[in-house]
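Q: How would the structure tokens look for this protein?
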Amino acid sequence: MADILTPALGESVTEATIAKWTKKVGDAVKKDELLVELETDKVSLEVVAPADGVLGAINAAEGDTVVPGTVLGSVTEGGAAAAPAAAPAKSAKGEAKAAAAAAASSIDITVPVMGESVAEGSMGKWLKKSGEAVKKDELLVEIETDKVAVEVSAPADGVLTIAADEGATVTPGQKIGSVSGSGAAAVAPAAAAPAPVAAPANTGSAQVKNETLSPAVQRVVAENNLDPKAISATGPKGNITKGDAIAAIGAAAAAPAPAAAPSAPRALAPREERVKMTRLRQTIARRLKESQNTAAQLTTFNEVDMTNVMALRAQYKEVFEKRHGVKLGFMSFFTKAVVAALQEIPAVNAEIDGTDIIYKNHYDIGVAVGTDKGLVVPVLRDADTLSLAGIEKGIGALGKAARDGDLTMDQLQGGTFTITNGGTYGSLMSTPILNAPQSGILGMHNIVQRPMAINGEVKIRPMMYLALSYDHRIVDGKEAVTFLVRIKELLEDPQRALLDL
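A: Here is the predicted structure in token form.
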């Protein structure tokens, strides 16, 4: 078998476009017979058959972009001498053998197990196209579930064949593609793989041809409304180069333009765009609405003077970072205050199960994190046992895992209370929705300098509004207000926590 390779395209020319195949898979060909025409931004090239035989495979379809050395197809040697009537049968046998060999050496790409209780996912965008070469363990596609995104990598070196399109619903164990272990793309008789595979450079079999405009020239002409007949051609055999078209743009700009007739303003973008919700976004929407429909939600507000916490943080932040290797933020103070308040008001750390109330004697705090794919709430385990440094490190690691899509199912389940910080985005006040089946969620907000009455005097203080949403079926108003006041006291006077007051 002889490969049909993309030849060297000339100085400063790095790619070409497949213009036309003159033969189909299974056709008999002669050595040096024209097989495919390539177009660059300067010239047109002809690629001829490297040997007598049968055109066994086409790896790059018309319109594909290729580079020097790309395998465009292959010729099965020895098949061209057969009589014309016998050629189709022999080519069919050659295709069947090629397909069987490719199938025998291919490795299936299957959907991995996606976690407990996750039965299906949606295909994300493939990072490679069918026919492209891939390396073992190279990331190929992400599968989105209602909780996490699962990465799927190449099982071996070879050429990719895609079997499941973007957006398709798939289940664990389902085949979504394959990789041919031999390194050669499998080609069906009726269609060609859309992308090329890199191969050693060819040194001949190409001649200059003057035909229609190259794709690059066509693009310049169309985008700038140029008349090809008015462009001076300087290319070989009188063809128009990309440089000629660009030069014509300047000439057209220099010429006085005729007065244009008034026209209605044209829309620069579509008025609407329909995009399918990701599986994670669908789950977020469903769970939030279920929470609203299930719990008797009520929100109570208070405000906290952040002066003392901010002063404490400013005084020790450098020493804290040098000692613990992590920055001292506000989340650790709030987490400590929340745990103390939960220990005092256990109903806020409980949940309803049928006609029973389950009181939690552990404090696993969910921390809402906004990502490009949606809102997730990873859980900081046993927050009551952690120091300020331990809380900051834990929250930092969870936030990074959330943004990178590396959260595990265990990290997203089992929280007893949630903290959400809309203040990082500039929110002044909000009414958070419960993260069911939890009974409480604390909303932090933006710190704003406001005039406050302090001992009969008006002073400017850094103030933050706090919002506690709670399930009124299990938490009474008195308990909710007491809980929020307790957090306010601990933040405005951090020494209380040290003295256990």
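Confidence is low (pLDDT under 50) at residues 80-90, 183-211.

The first strand starts at residue 2 and ends at 5.

Upvote if useful.
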